[in-house]
Amino acid sequence: MLTLERLNAADEAQFTALLDGVYEHSPWIAARAWQSRPFATLAQLKHALIEAVRGAPGEAKLGLIRAHPELAGKAMVSKSLTAESTNEQNKAGLTDCTPEEFDTIQRLNADYNARFGFPFILAVRGPRGAGLPKREIIATFARRLANQPAFELDEALRNIHRIAEIRLNDKFGHDPVLGNLVWDWAEALAAHSDPGYAERGELCVTYLTDAHCACAAQLARWMREDCGFDEVNIDAVGNVVGVYHGTDRDAKRLLTGSHYDTVRNGGKYDGRLGVLVPMACVRELHRQGRRLPYGIEVVAFAEEEGQRYKAVFLGSGALTGQFNPNWLDQQDADGVAMRAALEKAGLRAEDIAALRRDPARYLGFVEVHIEQGPVLNAADLPLGVVTSINGSVRYFGEIVGTACHAGTTPMTMRRDAAAAAAELVLYVEERGAAVPDLVATVGMLDVPNGSINVVPGRCRFSLDVRATTNEVRDACARDIQERLRAICARRGLDYTLEESMRAAAAPCDQALRARWEHAVGSLGLPVFHMPSGAGHDAMMLHQIMPQAMLFQRGLNAGISHNPLEAVTNDDTELCVLAFQSLLHQLATDPT
Question: What is the pTM for the complete model shown?
Fold first, then answer.
């Protein structure tokens, strides 16, 4: 087996020879990475190889892609693949295609080459490293044909890096055991899905349904039987709470966790990753017979998404004392009141108020989460340290003009509400891009009773503004409102704009954030800072105790709230190791 010690001691020629086959027919990558040695971790070596490619000219990147064989292509048929490629295509079953599958792949290969000018690259051993099923390979092939050329070139390179990562694991005899554990847990938990979705193979777990209760029971079993938590219970709001005591049972605890409910037809990792990663850490502590000077409390929050009732953060809100008793009378789409749903699940609504945590009993709250965005994916980085959870404000507006005949009304005499809205949308885009870590979005546009031959007399729209600080958010919102006023005044239009939601920004605690930074750096990775544009349970806990978050990269351009949401076992392994580092830091230096 190859070792880092041997690799670090090698001269450039030896180094390149030792890494032969990691990148297909491209020894120049190892030669460039040699200059970055010594490498303290395998993750650092992987990153150096990625950086060697990222810093190369475009022609070299294109040459790297073209050095790869087509899937189930001529090289496979003629048995001229490299040993590494043969192994990978074997694991995915591509050397045993049916005639129909082979014909489909050949057609896709031809269409792909015609569109992009290079072969389709996919890490066919998959996010778990064991091989993708052929139906998934074919579906991915067809889906990526619709990508834009520049994006697809980058996606090909990302898959090449994943291929190289798995090949390096083989060379070093590295098995991401903890990443595999979390990945397998997520797969098993995804077996539970609400009716109407389960039949289609889709994932949907909404608050207090049978599937939701099954997930809670499964998490509780794992905590109790597999992980060795000292106390496990499902509380009055449906949270699954596991406590692993410290050497002093009365010592403060570190609070962590995330939610286990999902959106409709969602992914397997949103929320759940932040439950399963700390569970894996407790499991390792228990197996080693270790106790820390503080306790660890992992909470799988019952609800965060607001899918069944018009209330969100029910789980984490109960811990901060912000569960509104009026919510109990809300009814879902089937007329089932929340109070009745709680009773059916065997929970007591009258006990929810007692769930409020005393912040003096805690060191703080930390949460790991899939990024739910494309930033880490584009940066080729597995982990990112969150600086702040964005504050947001939302509005619903309507512009009112005059509906009139599109053929008989001169352009200079129109009061076109949709044209005014279009002008506003472009300003929102411009203003949102003017300041770092600020985003502004018009996500809904509607012309009521619109017709192809009628000048729009009304246009309804939404507005969403988010930023890392409330001040930046509010300044943007004020500018947009002023521009809306000016547009309507110039065009002779009326308007209304009503605020529908406001959430304060939640800057991550500097001390806890520094621990995440140290954890990521100890893995040999660059520390990458980024804001969270999405809301998380950490926003609620922020109101009563310090909080800090760590993001893990998602595949498929970081897509989330979608069945394509995915992570790799290697990235997840690094996430678990980072969490273990944070636990160790708190144990050795609690200040």
Answer: 0.93
Contact 432, 470 (CB under 8 A): no
67 neighbors 53 (Cβ within 8 angstroms): no
Q: Residue 443's CB: how many other CB atoms inside 10 A?
A: 9
- Asked if pLDDT for residue 93 goes beyond 80, the answer is no
Residues whose CB is less than 8 angstroms from the CB of residue 151 and which lie 6 or more positions away in sequence, other chains included:
557
Q: What tokens appear for 259 in the block? A: 């939610």
- Residue 340: burial class (beta carbons within 10 Å; 0-12, 13-18, 19+): middle
Q: How many CB atoms lie within 10 A of CB 529?
A: 14
- Pick the closest to residue 369 from 506, 492, 272 (CA basis): 272
DSSP H helix total and E strand total for the chain: 21, 16
Half-sphere exposure of 170 (CA within 13 A, CB side): 17
Q: Give me the long-range contacts of 72-78 (CB less than 8 A, separation at least 24).
A: 72/97, 72/101, 72/102, 72/105, 72/106, 72/109, 73/106, 73/109, 73/119
Residue 480 dihedral angles phi and psi, to the nearest 5°:
-65, -40
pLDDT cut 90: percent of the chain above it = 92
Q: Is 481 left (phi over 0), alpha (psi -120 to 50) or beta?
A: alpha
Whether pLDDT at 80 is above 80: no
Phi-psi region of 101 (alpha: psi -120 to 50; beta: other; left: phi over 0): alpha
Rounded CA separation 239/92 (Å):
39
Give the DSSP letter of residue 24. Answer: T
DSSP string covering 105-152: HHHHHHHHHHHHSS-----TTTTTSS---HHHHHHHHHHHTTS-HHHH
> Coil, helix or strand for 530?
strand
CB neighbourhood size of 326 (10 A): 9
pLDDT tens-digit series, residues 514-548:
999 999 999 999 999 999 998 899 999 999 999 99
pLDDT digits (tens, 9 = 90+) for 22-39: 999 999 999 999 999 999
- Which of 124, 127, 300 lies closest to 229 in space, CA to CA? 300
CB 469 within 8 A of CB 463: no
Cβ burial 115-130 (10 Å sphere, 16+ → b, else e): ebebbbbbbbbbbbbe
Q: What are phi and psi of 9, to 5 degrees?
A: -85, -10
